[in-house]
């Protein structure tokens, strides 16, 4: 199979962010939280501070590296929660049908009707700001597309011979869902999960920017942007580098998702085979 | 039939439910299958063969519903068994193979694993043990190099091989009864013969009774000791397979036998044109009054339209449902 450009570029961008986050303690020059030094406030990028420093004199390069940890944790974990919820609901709704299907459909429509960021804002307003609350808020508000997708895919597989055969051979409902249907709908779910991860990174940045996510002084790209608002004309680098990091991560995840879709979609696979 | 019947179907009625109306898609069907016996069910498409089989394993789905009668398996009534009990029977004591070997296997799972799953599911085997048994099961269905084939995915196998895998799965737990719903219809004629031979040999070796469902009278006559002929949801004739061929009693059976093509020498001084039964099987919602075959029957008289014939025992064994049976 020919490797696609979007898969390679997306994978490379995402891998860069992962490596940066994982190796942050070794790559960073200073401690991202403690090493505030007002003597070095708002130093422009240069040989000593690669990305410059912020208003408190902290090294932006180090903070962006550590910020990758938070963004990736939020993106991956919240999207995992979303995927598990969406798949469980969608798959069981398609398989069992009846009132459960109606209920899940209603719930999904409700979730789609409320903008997920507003919903997450409401949850964050109730919970104490912090990483766990952020994971919960973002993990509970973005499962509707995954749910729709898994329901639709499972519906079309439900009448397939091997699903019927499994029933005839005495498989239980849960076993049929997990061994017969789920593996066959995993491709599109992975794709939408990857795309959703980009969305979650953005949502984390938005929430932190609004002061409802990760609280300063901990380095999250969103809160860094928020802090940098006042200096955007005098010291633009304070906002440019976290912004670039968000841009790179989301672009990487979207390209990766698109690339995976091309690879995992049986129809496009058939075209290139 | 020897001794106590393994499966006894008593006045089975299956309804097609349309709104508040119920139509008897299958009506008053009774037959029994002895241990290790091969019983054939033959008839045109839409006569109720397949739904009868589905009813036996409790998998009728809307708009079809159980309408009445009894299904006795090993002397135990199973038509009202709760789902969990029925699930223990399925695949374990009663198994089934299908017409479509292309779609009846999970495309993302190696065939060995699909066979092994049966041992894990019904016999409580460990995966390790089950995968070893899967190789044996593949060898039993005469798949060459079974130790390598277990790792193959369904798309890597031919139609005949896939049907062999299906048979291996269905017979893995040594069921008492195998339901074979048109098992060879989708296969080449040469492969058909091999598959039928395989089913015959394995069921004989394991003492498995077979309910063979087909529209092919020749195939049924080859495989089965006794045959039931279904038409429009009724069992119209039930006799020894040989008898059905030699001297069909019901006009419909007669029509089926006459419609078989003759080949070679027999053809040259036999009839010249292939016989057919005119008309088609009526829809379930439009079954005629009286005998359900009457609109297509050449021996039809007044009584056929007025009265539904009762089952009559035939002097040489078997039953027929016709006012004018031969």
From TrEMBL, chain A:
<keyword id="KW-0813">Transport</keyword>
<dbReference type="InterPro" id="IPR050366">
    <property type="entry name" value="BP-dependent_transpt_permease"/>
</dbReference>
<comment type="similarity">
    <text>Belongs to the binding-protein-dependent transport system permease family.</text>
</comment>
<feature type="transmembrane region" description="Helical">
    <location>
        <begin position="72"/>
        <end position="97"/>
    </location>
</feature>
<protein>
    <submittedName>
        <fullName>ABC transporter permease</fullName>
    </submittedName>
</protein>
<keyword id="KW-1003">Cell membrane</keyword>
<dbReference type="InterPro" id="IPR000515">
    <property type="entry name" value="MetI-like"/>
</dbReference>
<dbReference type="Pfam" id="PF00528">
    <property type="entry name" value="BPD_transp_1"/>
</dbReference>
<feature type="transmembrane region" description="Helical">
    <location>
        <begin position="234"/>
        <end position="256"/>
    </location>
</feature>
<keyword id="KW-1133">Transmembrane helix</keyword>
<feature type="transmembrane region" description="Helical">
    <location>
        <begin position="185"/>
        <end position="214"/>
    </location>
</feature>
<feature type="transmembrane region" description="Helical">
    <location>
        <begin position="6"/>
        <end position="28"/>
    </location>
</feature>
<feature type="transmembrane region" description="Helical">
    <location>
        <begin position="117"/>
        <end position="141"/>
    </location>
</feature>
<keyword id="KW-0472">Membrane</keyword>
<dbReference type="InterPro" id="IPR035906">
    <property type="entry name" value="MetI-like_sf"/>
</dbReference>
<keyword id="KW-0812">Transmembrane</keyword>
<feature type="domain" description="ABC transmembrane type-1">
    <location>
        <begin position="68"/>
        <end position="257"/>
    </location>
</feature>
């Amino acid at each position: 199979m020919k490797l696609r450009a979007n898969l390679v570029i997306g994978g490379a961008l995402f891998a860069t962010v992962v490596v940066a986050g994982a190796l942050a303690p070794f790559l960073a020059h200073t401690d991202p939280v403690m090493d505030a030094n007002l003597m070095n406030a708002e130093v422009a990028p240069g040989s000593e501070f690669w990305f410059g420093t912020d208003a408190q004199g902290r090294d932006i390069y180090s903070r962006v590296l550590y910020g990758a940890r938070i963004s990736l944790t939020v993106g991956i974990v919240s999207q995992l929660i979303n995927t598990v919820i969406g798949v469980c609901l969608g798959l069981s709704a398609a398989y069992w049908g009846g009132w459960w299907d109606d209920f899940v459909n209603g719930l999904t429509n409700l979730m789609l009707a409320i903008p997920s960021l507003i919903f997450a804002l409401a949850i964050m307003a109730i919970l104490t700001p912090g990483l766990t609350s952020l994971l919960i808020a973002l993990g509970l508000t973005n499962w509707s597309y995954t749910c729709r997708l898994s329901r639709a895919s499972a519906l079309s597989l439900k009448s397939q011979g091997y699903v019927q055969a499994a029933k005839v051979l005495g498989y239980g409902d849960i076993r049929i869902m997990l061994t017969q249907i789920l593996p066959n709908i995993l491709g599109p779910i992975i794709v939408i999960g990857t795309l959703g991860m980009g969305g979650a990174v953005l949502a984390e940045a938005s929430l932190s920017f609004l002061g409802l996510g990760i609280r300063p002084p901990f380095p999250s790209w969103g809160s860094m942007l928020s802090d940098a608002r006042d200096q955007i004309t005098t010291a633009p680098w304070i906002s440019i580098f976290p912004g670039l990091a968000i841009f790179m991560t989301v672009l990487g995840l979207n390209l990766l998702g698109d690339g995976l879709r091309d690879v995992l979609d049986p129809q496009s696979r058939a075209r290139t085979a | 039939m020897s001794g106590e019947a393994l499966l006894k179907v008593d006045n089975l009625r299956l309804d097609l439910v349309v709104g508040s109306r119920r139509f008897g898609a299958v009506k008053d069907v009774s037959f029994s299958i002895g241990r290790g016996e091969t019983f054939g069910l033959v008839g045109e498409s839409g006569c109720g063969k397949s739904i009868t089989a589905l009813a036996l394993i409790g998998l009728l789905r809307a708009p079809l519903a159980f309408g009445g009668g009894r299904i006795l398996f090993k002397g135990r009534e199973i038509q009202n068994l709760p789902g969990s009990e029925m699930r223990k029977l399925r695949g374990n004591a009663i198994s089934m193979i299908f017409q479509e070997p292309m779609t009846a296997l999970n495309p993302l799972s190696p065939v060995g694993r699909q066979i092994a799953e049966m041992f894990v599911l019904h016999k409580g085997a460990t995966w390790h043990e089950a995968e070893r048994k899967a190789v044996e099961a593949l060898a039993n269905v005469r798949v060459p190099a079974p130790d390598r084939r277990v790792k193959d995915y369904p798309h890597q196998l031919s139609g005949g091989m896939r049907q062999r895998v299906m048979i291996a799965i269905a017979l893995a737990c040594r069921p008492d009864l195998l339901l074979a719903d048109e098992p060879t219809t989708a296969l080449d004629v040469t492969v058909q013969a091999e598959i039928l031979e395989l089913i015959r040999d394995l069921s004989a070796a394991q003492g498995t009774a077979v309910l063979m469902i087909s529209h092919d009278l020749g195939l049924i006559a080859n495989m089965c000791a006794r045959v039931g002929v279904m038409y429009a949801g009724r069992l119209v004739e039930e006799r020894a397979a040989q008898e059905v061929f030699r001297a069909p009693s019901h006009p419909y059976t007669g029509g089926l036998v006459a419609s078989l093509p003759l080949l070679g020498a027999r053809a040259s001084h036999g009839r010249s044109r292939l016989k057919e039964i005119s008309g088609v099987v009526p829809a379930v919602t439009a079954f005629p009054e009286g005998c359900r075959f009457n609109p297509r029957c050449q021996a039809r008289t007044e009584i056929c339209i007025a009265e539904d014939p009762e089952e009559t025992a035939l002097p040489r064994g078997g039953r027929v449902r016709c006012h004018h049976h031969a």
